[in-house]
């Protein structure tokens, strides 16, 4: 069981004053207060900028943040002259996942922190996004995929079938409307589709299917404790003033919505 | 499995999983029940709420129709997915032109790691959503209650009963409250208290007042509005003061109760809310 979790986003953004201030301004607009906990003092954006432009004695560029009911560290790393921004996922935000199975019970709500980081980075293209922990290991070789390790279906086929039902229900309920198609399914009836996938889960212990959302296609692979999205061309593209790249947030939000009922332990997304 | 224990009486209320809770927000509206339901449902769906009937998502019209059916059949609530959690969603007409919007649920969903009780439902997060649905309506009263609600001692105004610790924990609890005042930039109006420069002085003042007079009273200022905060060993009250926070609803001047409730939620953020009432 991991003790700490960190969610990080590598941006297609040069490490410069303009881009760093854009991030700080966006965070402030979301309701962040920059705070010096030693001096009990709220910092201005300019003071927060000074905190991250000059590394502290440990070499870290970090500013403490008060956001709604949590205090987190906003950590900035200079990676090959580009910005990587991270926030630590505190214990404060937790969620009761026992709707799926009591064994999973209450876990840290990492998904909420990841959504928060995506909002902070909304002015830029994201090259890589990940949730890591003290037990993290690389999930796969880099390519274009979105992958999450989650607490689910590890107790046999029956449990997995049950959990797959939740995943496809999430797809169905989601405001990101997923329309699933599979050569063996000739129906768009949700209940029939759900029954088919639950049966497949019982037999094969894995689900492979194609899906699309807003006419962008991807392949979905589900195994016990593991969901992977492989975007298919043509990809959804995000264009900013400086860059144009695969819209990582679009695919990530699909992944997070599918995982609504499960706590996410690891996540990696490469666009 | 977390055990839920009242820190003062040491009464054990069962494990975390057994808890149920309800949040109720009563509002005024000149709309009839059907119009009111449609207005709230449409706003909810626009905010990505998904109303469900036998696992099928409903459109605004279908959800309104379903609400009317359940209302006339005296059933309770519609299962609703809000982002990544589920609640029973109720809209009840309590009297003419007065309605209650409610979230009810068993334990599954958003919770938080608080002082003393550790895991506890994150009522404040649900309440903020509920208030968002009613931000253009005149609010009559608010009530959060749950399995663990034991307090009937209610002094009107805006009061939260909290999962604060025993008297031995008082200094620590007060320290967390005072730090919240500082982090939210609330100003203390007593000129003899050097706040936020001297956190310890304010902590000592509050702890001393609670020990000797059972409660401490502060006058605070935020965004040019004044309000009193009464802190006891288990409750915090907000009393709107002079220079009221006002907003206009349907062209009429109203006290902005949501603004005051948000202050209460900000101040109480490190403690689980056992009960919250306002009228």
Task: Tell me about this structure.
The complex is a heterodimer of chains A (271) and B (279). Chain A has 6 helices and 17 strands. Helix content of chain A is 28%, strand content 38%. In chain A, helix 1 crosses helix 2 (45-53) and helix 4 (157-173) packs antiparallel against helix 5 (190-204). In chain A, the strands form 3 sheets. A 13-stranded antiparallel β-sheet of chain A has the order 3-2-4-5-6-1-9-17-10-14-13-12-11. A two-stranded antiparallel sheet of chain A has the order 7-8. A two-stranded antiparallel sheet of chain A has the order 15-16. The longest helix of chain B has 15 residues, at 199-213. Classes of the chains: A alpha+beta (271), B alpha+beta (279). Chain A binds chain B through residues 33, 35, 40-42, 66, 68-69, 71, 91-99, 102, 105-106, 109, 111, 169, 172-175, 190-191, 257, 260-261, and chain B through 1-2, 16-17, 48, 50, 52, 55-57, 81, 83-86, 107-113, 119, 122, 124, 179, 182-185, 196-197, 199, 265-266, 269. Strand 7 (93-96) of chain A pairs antiparallel with strand 9 (109-114) of chain B, so a sheet runs across the interface.
């Amino acid at each position: 069981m991991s003790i700490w979790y960190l969610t990080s986003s590598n941006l297609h953004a040069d490490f410069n004053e303009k881009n760093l201030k854009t991030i700080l301004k966006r965070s402030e607009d979301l309701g962040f207060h920059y705070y010096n906990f030693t001096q009990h003092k709220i910092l201005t954006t300019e003071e927060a900028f000074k905190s991250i432009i000059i590394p502290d004695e440990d070499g870290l560029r970090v500013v403490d943040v008060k956001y709604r009911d949590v205090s987190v560290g906003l950590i900035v790393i200079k990676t090959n002259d580009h910005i990587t921004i991270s926030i630590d996922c505190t214990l404060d935000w937790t969620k009761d996942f026992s709707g799926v199975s009591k064994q999973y019970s209450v876990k840290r709500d990492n998904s909420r922190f990841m959504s928060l980081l995506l909002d902070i980075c909304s002015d830029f293209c994201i090259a890589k996004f990940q949730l890591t922990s003290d037990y993290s290991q690389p999930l796969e070789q880099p390519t274009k995929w979105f992958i999450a390790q989650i607490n689910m279906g590890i107790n046999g086929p029956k449990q997995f079938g049950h959990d797959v039902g939740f995943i496809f229900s999430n797809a169905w309920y989601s405001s990101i409307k997923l329309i699933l198609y599979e050569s063996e399914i000739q129906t768009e009836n949700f209940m029939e589709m759900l029954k088919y996938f639950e049966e497949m889960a019982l037999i094969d212990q894995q689900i492979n299917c194609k899906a699309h959302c807003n006419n962008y296609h991807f392949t979905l692979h589900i195994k016990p404790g593991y969901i992977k999205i492989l975007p298919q061309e043509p990809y959804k593209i995000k264009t900013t003033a400086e860059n144009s790249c695969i819209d990582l947030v679009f695919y990530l939000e699909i992944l997070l919505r599918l995982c609504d009922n499960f706590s996410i332990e690891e996540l990696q997304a490469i666009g | 499995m977390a055990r839920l224990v009242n820190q003062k009486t040491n009464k054990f209320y069962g494990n975390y999983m057994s808890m149920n809770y309800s949040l109720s927000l009563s509002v005024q509206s000149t709309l009839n029940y059907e119009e009111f339901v449609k207005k709230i449902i449409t706003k909810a769906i626009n905010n990505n709420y998904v109303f469900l009937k036998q696992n099928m998502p409903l459109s605004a019209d279908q959800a309104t129709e379903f609400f009317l059916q359940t209302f006339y059949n005296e059933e309770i609530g519609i299962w609703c997915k809000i982002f990544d959690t589920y609640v029973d969603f109720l809209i009840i007409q309590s009297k003419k032109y007065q309605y209650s919007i409610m979230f009810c649920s068993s334990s599954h969903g958003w919770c938080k790691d608080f002082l003393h009780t550790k895991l506890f439902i994150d009522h404040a997060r649900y309440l903020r959503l509920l208030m968002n649905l009613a931000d253009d309506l005149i609010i009559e009263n608010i009530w959060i209650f749950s399995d663990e609600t034991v307090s009937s001692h209610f002094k009107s105004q805006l009061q939260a009963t909290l999962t604060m610790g025993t008297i031995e924990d008082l200094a620590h609890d007060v320290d967390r409250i005072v730090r919240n005042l500082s982090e939210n930039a609330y100003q203390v109006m007593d000129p003899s208290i050097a706040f936020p420069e001297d956190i310890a002085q304010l902590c000592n003042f509050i702890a001393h007042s609670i020990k000797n007079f059972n409660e401490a009273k502060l006058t605070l200022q935020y965004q040019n509005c004044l309000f009193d905060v009464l802190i006891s060993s288990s409750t915090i009250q907000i009393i709107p003061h002079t220079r009221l926070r006002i907003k206009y609803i349907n062209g009429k001047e109203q006290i902005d109760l949501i603004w005051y409730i948000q202050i209460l939620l900000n101040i109480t953020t490190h403690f689980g809310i056992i009960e919250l009432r306002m009228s």
